[in-house]
User: What shape does this take?
Amino acid sequence: MSSNPDAVLYDHPGPRAKTRNLILTIIFGIALVALLWWVYDKFDEKGQWAGPLWRPFLEGSTWTDYILPGLWSTVKAAAVAMLLSLVFGIIFAVGRLSDHWWVSIPAGVVVEFFRAVPLLLMMFFIFFGVPFLTEQPMPPFWAVVIGLTLYNGSVLAEAFRAGIRAVPRGQSEAAYAIGMRKNQVMREILIPQAARAMLPVIVSQLVVLVKDTALGYIIGYTELLQNGVNTLGANYGNTVAAAIVAAIIYVVLNASLTFFAGVLERRTRRSGRAPRAGRGQPAAAGTVGVSAAVEPQG
Amino acid sequence: MDVFSDSANIDTYVTGFLWILKLTAAATVGALVLGVALAAFRVSPIPVLRGFGTAWVNIFRNTPLTLIVFFCYFGLYSALGLTLSDDIDRNNYWLGVVGLSVYTAAFVCEAIRSGINTVPAGQSEAARAIGMSFLQTLRIVILPQAGRAVVAPLGSIFIALAKNATIVGTIGLMESSSAMKDLINANGDAVVPIFLVFAGTFAAVLIPTGYLFGWLANRLAVKR
Assistant: This one.
């Protein structure tokens, strides 16, 4: 198994291969430029590059009135949901690993159910359906956060379960041997080690969470997409421009989170103390939990 | 369960899930083709293609699908005037398929690339030693082995795709989540049964599909 697949699939280029690669580079380069030009031209044809559409982004009020409040709501919902999902994830991971069937089976049913139900369906139920039951309006913020918690918490529960099971058996055997109770073994031996191995997965789940907050737009939560694209676009008539700016913000935010996850992963791997989480080996053991955590959602 | 004795409501339910099925089917094909091409780009000897693949993955994997679908409608259709069909539902459907494919392809590409990682270097070295070109090595030797290694991750990607298909409701297609919303608003007294039927349908289809992919992954895994 090689760490650098790019260098494995072809030889170090000789003179002929170099010429061929150069020619192909030029051909594909031209094709790419032509594609970009075509997109530019299409936008131009419809007047999407017109100054008035982009000028609002140079004004401070556009940012302080629309984009930043939207971004703040996005971050707030993602942060609260992340904390709650972590709690949910740990409780249900431990529940599913319980020795008592009356704990492990319900926990398993809950986790499997919320993982299989589309998040948007969940949010619609919480936002439109629950008020009929409680006879109180549901604030969009909580509809988003509860929906995100149930889904991401279930995904994290599976990831934690895989992490706990990846801790070498000797660890818990040693703990039992010195007389620790089941509860202590889980709390003091297994979870801390699993949490370290799972840290990169947790951070990449945060990316999923940040992206999923955009579903709040559909139920009228004023996050980045609602405030920074829909409202802003309606006021200035520049929906396309606003969508491009919002996309850039999302990409920068999530790419930095992904980068951070990569740094954490390298650090955990180097220290060698935490058990390997089986990432980067899709066919290896523990696929269920770990690959579930990188599921794309919303 | 009186709600579902009304044939109009049954109709809403069935139409909703038919849209989800159609969206999932078309976008699976689109994402698979695009994703494999992108993965090939990312491991190719040509820097322009590698850059293109990397840019694609980083942009689409980090943008919310809601924003992509939103852009497909307001950007491609409203602002740029791209019409994919004269029928309004068909048009929204195809715009949704474009959005879902473009988004999911980024994940398919990364899964396949990690699958290429699991193929021992000796395989491609041997392929090159008998004189295969880059494309031949990739097509005949590497991808078949990589594909078998990524059945499980691809399975969860396509399951997520089926769930993500509900987001196309944003641009006015009456898929199952919008159908559920309408039924809930019309039948405030039967909120829980409605939710359980819709969510239960997803769970009943997707949970076994998940296990099926797990079983397939074990069967197809390359034994080393």
